[in-house]
From TrEMBL, chain A:
UniProt keyword terms in alphabetical order: Signal, Sugar transport, Transport
Lineage: Bacteria, Bacillati, Bacillota, Clostridia, Halanaerobiales
PANTHER family: ABC TRANSPORTER PERIPLASMIC-BINDING PROTEIN YCJN-RELATED, ARABINOSE-BINDING PROTEIN-RELATED
Annotated signal peptide: 1-25
Family to which this protein belongs: Belongs to the bacterial solute-binding protein 1 family.
Domain of life: Bacteria
Protein name listed in UniProt: Carbohydrate ABC transporter substrate-binding protein, CUT1 family
Cross-referenced InterPro entries: Bact_solute-bd_prot1 (IPR050490), SBP (IPR006059)
UniProtKB/TrEMBL annotation, chain B:
SUPFAM superfamilies per record: MetI-like
Annotated PROSITE patterns: ABC_TM1
Protein name listed in UniProt: Carbohydrate ABC transporter membrane protein 1 (CUT1 family)
One biological process term in Gene Ontology: transmembrane transport
Keywords for the protein's UniProt record, in alphabetical order: Cell membrane, Membrane, Transmembrane, Transmembrane helix, Transport
Statement: the UniProt record of this protein carries the keyword Isomerase: no
Length: 439, 288
């Protein structure tokens, strides 16, 4: 009797050991994403489940982080020695990490090659390139920014589309009626990333840069001062106080402003009513999608398009097993139906960086993209010609990450709009702050 | 006898050991680690060494105008909120110390701001003071015409401090109310009856009976609220990032400019300041 019991127990122990061993044998890969909305997290979780069901070597642990919190979270992660294997963030953050020597450029190049360099837009690759050769991040998806405006109201008053500085200012002043809580435009005037993003387009269209081609800081150049002056004047037609992206979205959907600057992510909010798409509720204006047009190119001294490429990148790690898992998962996310499902979580907002996917009928077959019709194709086309502060004449300046993480551009703007500083004084202040940030 | 005493002492040490260890690990170690950080140039990369730089962080901070502006903001924020929460708590406690129907319900409702999660309260206030849709602007400008135009109360650096102060008083006065009310209920009625016999007015009764009885609870409330609000981060930062009180200043130093050493040095300066204040207050005001 006793022997039998002993055999049973040891058999049980062996089984327990085998089970725990197999579950321990799985490698866990930590993946940080800036997609924090619940619906988007659900899509990513579905993709993770699909990935895990296709192989049993790797497990993915998803962590969501707000875009504005990325510098903070990375700093504390770094200090605690607990960094993820793979993160999905904007190009500046990637360049910043790359410049700090924290990224595994080799792993990135591997994934780019596995997907095929020729099947990724050059414009997107350029945004993530490593000055020393190769890349700091795998391009994942991108958005284009511009002025979304009420074509119906513009036509009613015989106004030009807001594509030049003059036409923007004329329209903004025409519509500004604060006593009726009607305002001209929403642009960023707060200490955040949104202010830098909206400002960049004005600066680039005026040939104003943060760095010149030799990498010298030129934030106090006459072009930049001129841009700041124009921006501050335009900001007089905005709703009271510092404004952020939330004001832009809420006030446009509520019909309080006829123009606002936003990325392509607004497409699902505006197109909401015309589809059965179960996104956020909010639009008050009837058929807003038909009344809205998008000016993504701004003309002044030159033409400027602004946008963002989000990439996947890998943190340097001793653990090759985990790194391999992250690479496998990155490739999975960028492939075929997985990639299309990912992009469809913010239809129109997230644009593919692979031409083969952009032209895939399966990708285009989405209610919301169909509602926008030919406009959506034109919107995505801007992705290839994005200009940014960190890129001058084919050179990349990863140092820009130090400046963006402190929101110095937004603070400079705020000094004019909230404290009444002159453009010259604000530019000088911003220049000095940037110098400090770079030292 | 001596041996027995030694043994008892030994046992005593063993008994307090867990407390000593936990206080050491959770309070003393962080304080010294913070001081150590404050004299180093802290490197973000854990594999790189930190460089000893002596007192230069302290010199940088004390000569930095931004620090003194934040310091002033913190002093304004702390003094107004301490006075505001205590006075409002005292007033409400005096009113609710009388008997009236539904008193228990009203007392419960008064506590709501204090028990509401800070994040939902902050968002509620953000919409209340929204520059375009907010109820506050609507009433002040469109209905009563007291103000000429809509104002962004929450985000504008000029006005945000008021919003943050009012928000903090609204949120924290119930704590003062609760403590004072408990003390009020322990004051014996016979004192008031005796005063009435002597012909004391309401004000005299308040001044010579209620206030002296409340002295220690109010004193304790003021010191606690001062310590809490001088280091208040969440209620300020969640409502408006435009109000740079010292904790927000430290946060930005540490995390958006990655100057951990400097941030630690600011904490050390604050520590000394608050410690000095407490010692002065306890000796001179509370006379303990």
């Amino acid at each position: 009797m006793r022997k039998k019991a002993l055999v049973k127990i040891s058999l049980l122990l062996v089984l327990v050991f085998v089970f725990t061993a197999t579950s321990f044998a799985q490698t866990t890969v930590e993946y940080w994403t800036t997609q924090t909305e619940q619906e988007r997290v659900e899509v990513i979780n579905d993709l993770i489940a699909r990935f895990e069901s296709q192989q049993d070597q790797y497990q993915i642990e998803l962590v969501t982080v707000q875009e504005n919190d990325i510098p903070t979270k990375l700093a504390s992660g770094m200090a605690a020695g607990r960094l993820p294997q793979m993160i999905e963030v904007g190009a500046e953050n990637i360049l910043n990490l790359g410049a700090e020597g924290m990224l595994d450029s080799e792993a990135v190049n591997d994934v780019v090659n596995r997907i095929g360099e020729e099947d990724i837009y050059d414009g997107a690759l350029k945004m993530l390139s490593n000055p020393a050769g190769g890349y700091f991040g795998v391009p994942f998806h991108g958005w284009v920014q511009g002025i979304w405006y009420r074509e119906d109201l513009f036509e009613e008053r015989g106004l030009e589309p807001p594509t030049t500085w003059e036409s923007i200012m004329t329209a903004a002043k025409e519509f500004y009626k604060p006593e009726e809580q009607q305002y001209g435009i929403v642009i960023g005037t707060n200490k955040d990333a949104y202010a830098r993003q909206t400002f960049t387009q004005y600066a680039l269209s005026n040939n104003a840069r943060i760095f010149d081609e030799e990498g010298n800081l030129v934030f106090n150049s006459p072009e930049m001062v001129e841009t700041l002056k124009f921006y501050a004047e335009l900001a007089e037609t905005t709703p009271p106080g510092p404004n952020g992206w939330r004001d832009a979205r809420d006030l446009y959907l509520a019909g309080r402003v006829p123009m606002m600057m936003y990325s392509t992510y607004i497409m699902d909010d505006i197109g909401l009513q015309a589809t059965d798409y179960a996104g956020e509720q909010g639009a008050i204006i009837e058929n807003l999608v038909d009344k809205t047009n998008f000016a993504n190119t701004m003309k002044h001294k030159t033409e400027a398009v602004f946008g963002q490429i989000n990439g996947l990148t890998f943190i340097k790690s001793e653990d090759q097993e985990k790194l391999e898992g992250a690479k496998t998962f990155a490739e999975f996310l960028l492939t075929g139906e997985n990639y299309i499902d990912f992009l469809h979580m913010a239809p129109g907002g997230m644009n593919p960086v692979r031409p083969s996917i952009a032209n895939d009928p399966k990708y285009l077959e989405h209610e919301l993209l169909e509602v926008w019709g030919e406009k959506s194709a034109r919107i995505a086309s801007g992705l290839n010609s994005i200009g940014k502060f960190g890129y001058v004449g084919g050179r990349v300046f990863p140092e820009i990450g130090n400046i963006t993480s402190q929101f110095i551009v937004g603070q400079t703007i705020m000094r004019m709009t909230e404290r009444g500083w002159s453009a010259e004084r604000a530019a000088e202040w911003g220049h000095n702050e940037m110098q400090d940030a770079l030292d | 006898m001596q041996i027995k005493k030694d043994q008892e002492a030994k046992l005593g040490y063993w008994l307090i050991l867990p407390t000593v260890l936990s206080i050491g690990g959770l309070i003393i170690y962080p304080v010294f680690y913070n001081l150590w950080l404050s004299v180093h140039d802290v490197n973000m990369n854990p594999t790189m060494p930190n460089e000893f730089i002596g007192l230069s962080h302290f010199i940088n901070i004390l000569t930095d105008l931004d620090f003194w502006i934040s310091f002033r903001t913190s002093l304004i924020f702390t003094s107004t909120t301490v006075i505001g929460t205590t006075l409002l708590g005292l007033g409400v406690a005096l009113l609710l110390n009388r008997k009236f129907p539904g008193r228990a319900i009203v007392r419960g409702i008064i506590l709501l701001p204090y028990v509401t999660p800070v994040i939902s309260a902050a968002f509620g206030w953000k919409y209340l003071f929204n520059p375009v849709f907010g109820m506050f602007n609507y009433i002040m400008v469109d209905v009563l015409s007291i103000l000429p135009q809509h104002i962004n109360w929450i985000e504008s650096p000029r006005y945000a401090i008021f919003a943050v102060i009012i928000f903090n008083i609204w949120r924290n006065f119930p704590f003062a109310f609760l403590m004072i009310l408990a003390e009020l209920q322990s004051i014996s009625d016979t004192l008031y009856e005796a005063a009435e016999v002597d012909g004391a007015t309401i004000w005299q009764k308040f001044k010579y009976i209620t206030l002296p009885e409340l002295k220690f609870v109010i004193g304790a409330l003021v010191i606690l609220r001062t310590i809490w609000n001088f280091y208040k981060f969440s209620e300020v930062y969640l409502l408006s990032s435009s109000v740079e009180v010292l904790p927000v200043y430290i946060y930005e130093k540490a995390f958006s400019t990655y100057s951990f050493g400097e941030a630690a040095a600011i904490s050390a300066i604050l520590f000394v300041f608050v410690l000095g204040f407490i010692m002065f207050y306890v000796r001179k005001v509370l006379e303990w």
